[in-house]
Every structure is written in C-alpha cells, then in structure tokens.
C-alpha cells in the first residue's frame, strides 16, 4: 500500500508542474505567433 501512496503523491506533485510547463509553452507559442504576424 505504501508504494501506491507514493505513486499517487508523485502524480499529484507532477501534475501541476506539467500543467504549468504546458501553459508556458502555449503562452510562448502564442507570443511567437503574434510577433511573426506583421502589425499594420
């Protein structure tokens, strides 16, 4: 049972990190797309 608890805690710890990294990648991609578009 201890291993299951550790695995669940690892998932709980890793999930927010992955979501933050994904959001940062999306934001950077959006900024790059905005910069690549010429503003008239």
Keywords for this entry:
88% helix; mainly alpha; 1 helix; 40 residues
What do these coordinates show?
The protein is mostly helical and 40 residues long. The chain has one domain (4-36). The protein has one helix spanning 2-36. The relative contact order is 0.09. Keywords: Membrane, Transmembrane, Transmembrane helix.
Instruction: List the helices and strands in order.
Output: H
Q: Report the helical percentage.
A: over 70%
Tell me, briefly, the overall form.
rod-shaped
Sheet with most strands:
none
Uncertain segments of ≥5 residues (pLDDT<50)? none
Task: Report, as a whole number of angstroms, the end-to-end distance.
Answer: 62 Å
Structural class call reads: mainly alpha
pLDDT averaged residue by residue: 79
Could you tell me the radius of gyration in angstroms? 18 Å
Strand content: under 5%
- In DSSP terms (H or I, runs of 4 or more residues), the helix count works out at 1
Q: What's the domain count?
A: 1
User: What's the β-strand tally?
Assistant: 0
Transmembrane segments: 20-39
Keywords: Membrane, Transmembrane, Transmembrane helix
